[in-house]
Write a structure and sequence with these properties.
single chain; mainly beta; five-stranded antiparallel β-sheet; four-stranded antiparallel β-sheet; 36 strands; 5% helix
Length: 442
């Protein structure tokens, strides 16, 4: 089903976790020589046969070792399959509401190659739904990573880190559980980033046809408003069922845009009546950030690749060819894998960074770039998000026309901060924790 990547033993080589339906989840250790070893049994992360969906590695207790959260979907087995029908009486897929939901699993990395299931004692089993998307980020700005789970048809959970090994679900009181109408939506894909440059992390979610995509604006300290209509992502997304999604700056103008992979789960009647053999396909969408708190759909400008109508599911972003233009790949149900090669972003100035703590990528670290006569740019190191996918953890910062960088600050996951000299533009550089100048300002 899904994949998460992270260096679980801090040896400098990225390990791979795969979720499954109908079989144990698997953790593959990277041997550093091009081969992997299945260490699932030793590590203790098989998942007890649950239907695993998205997963994320994050250091929730800040002990220097990556922990693991696995979202689970529903309690389903082939022998329990129900018959469901569309309004036209045609056989169709069932909604997740027809099956019991399953809590997610939180594993604490002991640092010795094994994990402890701390789901119950951490509190994350006290609320759950049909989990599909998950992402770790410091949403309330206290320096500790929180956890956001997108549920299919149920209120989403926002697990606030209590800094003592436990979490509290504060999705409802913080305004990120349901939409502005108070309705739970079919949360599939999720990404979290600072789209407006104000220093706070915002949440974007994809949903079913007729539900719209949702943008939760972080108004400060982890309290959110549904501003989907105001920012311009609601109306264009209503006809589509969105899955994989990522914030990315496709033109390197300094503002994060949005891409979404679409594909229905319920039969599209107009396609079925035409005899389409797979009447679920839809085109993907691209939203351009105007830099004023609003987006406009720019799918048509994305080129012929966006004219393809397919059943999009997973979407992962990364600079595949290291040219400074963010690319992405889409996995289509019952269709061809598509690689979308960015042909425009590399023409604008950019800064590429890999942030490491020790030998591994510093998941959760935030980069603060201050420019002359321009808003600050905030980016976070992350590989999680989207839908069942893992992204390039490097930070790619488009600078647009404002290339004069006054300062570059890294906020490390352990709460420390360092200033670094500005590396050369239009190339990737590595910044290691402990090699910058410590910053103690408030």
């Amino acid at each position: 089903m899904g994949v998460a990547v992270g260096d679980v033993d801090n040896d400098g080589f990225v390990d791979v976790f795969v979720t499954h339906f109908g079989a144990p989840n698997q953790l593959f250790h990277n041997n550093g020589d091009g081969t992997f070893t299945d260490i699932t049994k030793k590590a203790g992360v098989a998942g007890a046969g649950k239907w695993g969906s998205s997963a994320t590695f994050f250091d929730y207790d800040r002990d220097g070792h990556l922990d693991l959260f696995v979202a689970n979907y529903v309690d389903f087995a082939l022998e329990k399959n129900q018959k469901c029908f569309a309004s036209t009486s045609v056989r169709d897929y069932c909604a997740p509401s027809g099956y019991p939901h399953v809590p997610g699993i939180l594993y604490r990395n002991r640092g010795d190659g094994t994990f402890e299931d701390v789901s119950v004692k951490s509190g994350i089993t006290t609320a759950y739904g049909a989990g599909l998307g998950v992402m770790a980020a410091d949403l309330n700005g206290d320096g500790w990573p929180d956890l956001y789970v997108a549920n299919d048809g149920n209120p989403n959970q926002l697990w606030i880190n209590q800094k003592n090994g436990t979490f509290k679900n504060e999705g409802e009181i913080r305004g990120a559980a349901v939409n502005a109408d108070g309705a739970a939506e079919a949360g599939m894909g999720v990404d979290i980033a600072d789209f407006d440059g104000n220093g706070t992390e915002d949440i974007f979610l994809t949903h079913l046809t007729r539900e719209k995509s949702t943008l939760f604006f972080n108004r400060g300290e982890g309290y959110f408003d549904d501003r989907s209509v105001e920012v311009g992502v609601a109306a264009p997304s209503i006809p589509f069922t969105g899955f994989g999604t990522v914030f990315l700056d496709y033109d390197n103008d300094g503002w994060l845009d949005i891409v979404a992979a679409n594909g229905a789960v319920h039969l599209i009647e107009s396609l079925r009546q035409k005899g389409d053999p797979y009447p679920l396909h839809q085109r993907k969408q691209l939203f351009h950030n105007l830099g004023n708190g609003k987006f406009e759909e720019s799918t048509a400008a994305g080129g012929p690749a966006f004219e393809l109508s397919e059943v999009g599911r997973g979407l992962a972003a990364g600079d595949f060819d290291n040219d400074g233009a963010i690319d992405f790949v889409v996995n289509n149900n019952n269709g061809t894998l598509r690689i979308f090669s960015n042909q425009v972003g590399g023409s604008n100035p950019w800064l590429g960074l890999r942030l490491v703590t020790g030998k591994r990528d510093a998941y959760g670290a935030r980069v603060e770039v201050r420019r002359k006569n321009a808003p600050p740019i905030w980016r976070r190191v992350r590989a999680d998000g989207s839908y069942l996918s893992a992204n390039d953890p490097r930070v790619l910062i488009g600078l647009g026309v404002n290339t004069e960088i006054e300062s570059l600050m890294v906020h490390w996951p352990d709460g420390t901060r360092e200033r670094f000299p500005v590396p050369p533009l239009k190339r990737y550089s590595t910044l290691a924790q402990g090699t910058g100048t410590a910053d103690a300002t408030k």
